[in-house]
């Protein structure tokens, strides 16, 4: 859903951690979040610094550059975060930021457990939109041997044609062509998230 | 098959953002843009420093550099991708992105494609001085992308 200029956002109380080895990259993120109203984001230039801080403070949102120098890059960091056994920070929302992604890292990006990946260049509008998407996140958290993180399926359209269903909630019947016009987003929201109304 | 555990999302960010107060999206974007303007000069100087380092270290790399040097080449170029577009130098960022793609493709290759690298370096130098949005910039970017995509 597009971000409207009149919508309200509040990041004053949010605990935000920004990680980027490039000082200018870190400054760009810091200045954007300062504009969004985040009071004192935790700035980290190394993964080691971030790991130390996460053992002491609870964080609501982490924004991390994917291509970090050294033994642990952004993808490894998110994998570590999801498995480190910290009671709250295990589930912290993570936005990975990436310029060019090497071919060998595409699958790692998908499987590391981040909530979103933003491709650079970042504009304030794109970043703010992704932050609000993450705040509205309703995907379940998945934990298994190979993956820990938000469900990688953004929508459940069932198995591809010709493939038998594997999950109990896979759609088992052929849906066929639509017979009515598409519903608008408000109608869909009302179906998914009914709210109590006091008259 | 291993056990898979599904649990409802624990969205701490949503809880923080539901607090009363805050600002409008319009105000937040305006403030963010003003803040970025304060670091514009410093970031553009960093782009120039990275361009300088690329030209100095790899401007005459007729032979394939070793893996560590290629990683440094890639990181310098990717650094430009990260900064340029935020400060309306989108075309320069796109050229740097194409150079990253080229380096990534050439790294495992046996043959080093110096002409393709050299053309990218020239493209970066030209786009740094070019008028943003000029039609010839797009033509140049199309050529750079085609060069990067054919590398193997």
List the helices and strands and how they pair.
The complex is a heterodimer of chains A (about 200) and B (about 150).
Chain A: E1 8-9, E2 16-19, H1 23-36, E3 42-44, H2 47-54, E4 61-65, H3 74-83, E5 93-98, H4 106-111, E6 116-119, H5 124-135, E7 141-143, E8 148-150, H6 185-192
Parallel strand pairs in A: 2-3, 2-4, 4-5, 5-6
Antiparallel strand pairs in A: 7-8
Chain B: E1 5-7, H1 12-17, E2 23-24, H2 25-58, H3 67-84, H4 90-106, H5 114-129, H6 135-150
Helix pairs in contact in B: 2-3, 3-4, 4-5, 4-6, 5-6
Gist of the model:
The complex is a heterodimer of chains A (199) and B (152). With 199 residues, chain A is an alpha/beta fold.
Give an overview in words.
The complex is a heterodimer of chains A (199) and B (152). Chain A is 29% helix and 15% strand. Chain A has 199 residues and is an alpha/beta fold. Chain A has a domain at 16-150: Rossmann fold (3-Layer(aba) Sandwich), CATH 3.40.50.2300. In chain A, the strands form 2 sheets. Chain A has a 5-stranded parallel β-sheet, sandwiched between helices. In chain A, strands 7-8 form a two-stranded antiparallel sheet. Chain A is globular, with a radius of gyration of 19 Å. The two termini of chain A are 28 Å apart. Chain B has 152 residues and is mainly α. Chain B has a single domain, classed as HPT domain (Four Helix Bundle (Hemerythrin (Met), subunit A)). Chain B has helices at 12-17, 25-58, 67-84, 90-106, 114-129, 135-150; strands at 5-7, 23-24. The interface between A and B is large, with 64 and 57 residues. Strand 1 (8-9) of chain A pairs antiparallel with strand 2 (23-24) of chain B.
């Amino acid at each position: 859903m597009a971000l409207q200029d009149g919508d309200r956002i509040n990041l004053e109380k949010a605990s935000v951690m920004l990680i980027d080895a490039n000082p200018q990259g870190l400054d760009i993120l810091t200045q954007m979040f300062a504009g969004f109203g985040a009071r004192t984001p935790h700035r980290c230039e190394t993964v080691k610094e971030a790991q130390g801080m996460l053992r002491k403070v609870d964080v609501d949102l982490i924004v991390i550059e994917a291509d970090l120098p050294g033994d642990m890059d952004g993808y490894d960091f998110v994998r570590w975060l999801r498995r480190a056994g910290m009671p709250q920070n295990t589930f912290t929302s993570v936005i990975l930021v990436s310029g060019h992604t090497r071919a060998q890292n595409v699958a790692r990006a998908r499987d590391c457990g981040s909530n979103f990946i933003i491709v650079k260049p970042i504009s304030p509008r794109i970043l703010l939109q992704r932050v609000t998407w993450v705040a509205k996140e309703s995907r379940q958290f998945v934990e298994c041997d190979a993956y820990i993180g938000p469900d990688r399926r953004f929508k459940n359209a069932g198995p591809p044609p010709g493939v038998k269903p594997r999950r109990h909630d896979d759609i088992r019947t052929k849906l066929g062509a639509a017979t009515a016009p598409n519903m608008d987003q408000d109608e869909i929201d009302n179906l998914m998230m009914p709210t109590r109304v006091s008259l | 098959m291993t056990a898979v555990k599904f649990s409802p999302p624990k969205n701490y960010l949503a809880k923080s953002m539901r607090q009363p107060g805050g600002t409008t999206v319009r105000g937040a974007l305006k403030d963010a843009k003003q803040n970025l303007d304060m670091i514009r000069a410093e970031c553009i100087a960093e782009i120039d420093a990275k361009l300088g380092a690329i030209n100095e270290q790899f401007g005459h790399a007729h032979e394939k550099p070793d893996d560590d040097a290629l990683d440094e080449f890639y990181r310098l170029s990717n650094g430009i991708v990260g900064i340029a577009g935020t400060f309306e130098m989108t075309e320069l960022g796109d050229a740097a992105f194409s150079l990253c793609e080229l380096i990534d493709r050439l790294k495992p290759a046996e043959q080093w494609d110096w002409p393709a690298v050299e053309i990218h370096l020239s493209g970066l130098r030209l786009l740094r001085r070019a008028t943003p949005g000029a039609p010839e910039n797009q033509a140049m970017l199309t050529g750079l992308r085609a060069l990067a995509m054919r590398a193997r």
